[in-house]
Amino acid sequence: MNEASQPRMSDPTSDDTATKKKAPAQPGDVDLNSVEPEPIDPSGDGDPGFVGLPVVENTNKNKRGQRPEWLRVPLPQGESYNEVRETVEDHDLHTVCESANCPNMGECWSRGTATFMILGNVCTRSCGFCAVKTGRPDEGLDWDEPRRVEEAVRKMDLDHAVITSVNRDEREDGGAPIFAEVIERVHGLGATCEVLTPDFRGMREPCETVFEAEPDIFNHNVETVPSLYRRVRPQADYERSLKVLRWAKEEGLRTKSGIMVGLGETKEEVLEIMDDFVEIGLDVMTIGQYMQPTEHHLPVEEWVEPEVFEWYKQVGEEKGIEHVESSPLTRSSYHAEEHV
324 — phi, psi (to 5°)? Predict the structure, then answer.
């Protein structure tokens, strides 16, 4: 790192701990009835069925509810907010805004925008940061879901829709056909569509199903730095996520990915992710503050100051990422309509 890109703050430190890599699991490797996790190596890979959320003693002073002033957001209110809630409930849909306790729900819903979460509201993975329910989903897919999403987008008169989902690792297709049909229906309304997908366990076929529907933005979050995967994303693999993003870019799609900070990463590790993103040609990166959703989730290790987010944006764009959305309250779908 040259002198011009050095942070105007405490020098970053790097974690030189060697990690042993293991190939991502393939379909059939996971017994979803299992309650005892298999051993996981430091990479976090292994897809060990349902892994219980890690029990982590919070030894720092960042207790839940004691957030700095810059993280305070107004309560949801207004006619548009109420209309969005009514539309979501009337169409029996889920939003990641609610399921993940997003701090921007009030702002986004008051603007008449929402991120729809398809494939149900039960996830087969147990990430240490996520408030979405973990368990075994109902069998099969809800094939009427794309129609309901279409009707909601039509009623809300959206110009841009964001579609995300839970992980459906119990399925060979990962639920990709539902993604594809939703994209086609949203495009049929004349709206643009961003998808925020799982990694589909690194399987090319379900990824291709989504690619062929030609979303305007293909988003898959790496979420955190590789050294923290075992604690933060125990059933995921950093290199596998990069592979999925690389495939999307090779198919000519506009690509996007994001991370949370404040989980114990170093600044140098964040810059290394930026370098990886530049190498795969990523177009948009999002960086936001991790906020512990419940006492059962990972604790906040650091409240990252707004000036650091501004610095991340500057450095990322100087490195070659077209657009870096970076602020304490940034989430994957925040200002998503501006990323097309």
Answer: -120, 115
Digit-coded pLDDT (tens) for 67-78:
788 776 554 555
The tokens for 134 are: 């973990």
- Which whole number is the average pLDDT over 144-153? 92
- pLDDT above 70: residue 338: no
Amino acid letter, 330: T
Q: What is the residue whose two structure tokens read 């898959």?
A: 220
Beta bridge partners of 164: 117, 196
SS (H, E, C) the chain: CCHHHCCCCCCCCCCCCCCCCCCCCCCCCCCCCCCCCCCCCCCCCCCCCCCCCCCCCCCCCCCCCCCCHHHCCCCCCCHHHHHHHHHHHHCCCEEHHHHCCCCCHHHHHHCCCCEEEECCCEECCCCCCCCCEECCCCCCCCCCHHHHHHHHHHHHCCCEEEEEECCCCCCCCCCHHHHHHHHHHHHHCCCEEEEECCCHHHCHHHHHHHHHCCCCEEECCCECCHHHHHHHCCCCCHHHHHHHHHHHHHCCCCEEEEEEECCCCCHHHHHHHHHHHHHCCCCEEEEEECCCCCCCCCCCCCCCCHHHHHHHHHHHHHHCCCEEEECCCCCCCCCHHHHC
At 30-69, the pLDDT tens digits run 444 433 333 333 333 333 333 333 433 444 445 545 778 8
Residue 176 clears pLDDT 80, i.e. is over it: yes
161 - beta bridge partners? Answer: 193
How do residues 226-276 score in pLDDT, each as one tens digit? Answer: 999 999 999 999 999 999 999 999 999 999 999 999 999 999 999 999 999
Cβ neighbours of residue 127 closer than 8 Å, sequence gap 6 or more: 223, 232, 233, 234, 235, 236
User: What six digits make up the tokens of 283?
Assistant: 């177009």
